[in-house]
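Incident log, structure service

09:12 report received: a user says their structure output differs between two submissions of the same chain.
09:20 pulled the input from the user's history:
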Amino acid sequence: MVPTRKMNKLNAIIFGISFLFCAALFNAGSVTLVHLLHQDKTPLSLLFTHLNAPRTRRIAFFIGAHIPAIEQLKKGALDCTKAYHVPFEHRSFYYDQNQSLLTHQINEALNSRYDLLIPIGTNASQMTHRQLSKRSNKTPMIFSSVTDPVQSGLSNEKYRTGFNSTGFSESYHSNIDIFVKALKTVRPDARSVLVIYTPTVPLLQEQVRELTTECAKHRLAFDTLEVFNCGEVYEKARTRIKKNVDVVVILREYNTTSALQALIKLCEETGTTLFASDKSSVEQGAAAGYCIDEYDLGLILGTYIQKVLQENKPAGELPVMYLNVTKICRLHINPFALHKQGVTAPLKELMSLPRVSIIQK
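09:34 re-ran on a clean worker, output below:
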């Protein structure tokens, strides 16, 4: 062990050399300290770069389940954040619709001091907001895929939450009539529609009620098939689809999208058209769908992430954004699945329609 006297002497020598070196740099005429620090190969430049490098920010996503559409939204958000050169790392917390697990995950993220929380869906957003309030925690939150932020208790006013949070509202209610018209465009000969959905989700219940009304206007026989887990979708659907069903509608949810391949197989066997509410399902084999491109939604979310993490803007100062779903939805068509699923309209005719997107394999 070095004696205290020798250690003090060593420290004095190091300090003296450092002082003389810095003095020389400041008196070096045309060579300035900043200039030297920016030279790539000097040890000081490495230290200078390290000290001035932006801190890597940590983002936590809270997601109900592995749904392809939601994964596309997340991908868009992350790609946009990368494009802004925001140094970040992220973690996705999947709570599988388990409220106790979600609560535990939110508290884990808060204890780990994540820089930004992004709950997707009304349920996850409400729970995240509740835990932040309970703990008087000021971690910023950006919610997504929330139908009504004020009614959900996430915002005090329409455009300002009153908390260190903001987000996006995507109301699908205004486009249900256009959804049914798009369905009729793909299957003008359709006489019956079967909607497969999970009845325990309030948003889906409301969408089904509106679909019932709109289908009646178009003289479509309307029926529903309730499922409570993805494992029972195939068996329940197999019997119902064979009973004179022209179109099967699936909404954006976990159970039906998880059983997508089984539904595609059933529809192809019976010549039934599978009409989806998310682009990913159309890409995977549904005949068509009237929906948003979730990746584009993610790009919008990414702009808010950049403002919070890079520009250091308080989330509460960013206005809640209300997306006009009617204007950004498109009719997505899978040309490889049309004939297999009973669509007789010529592809050329469908392609000539406004706001149509053809899925390319």
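09:41 both user submissions now match this output. Likely a transient worker issue. Closing.
09:42 reviewer note: Confidence is low (pLDDT under 50) at residues 17-38. The radius of gyration is 28 Å.
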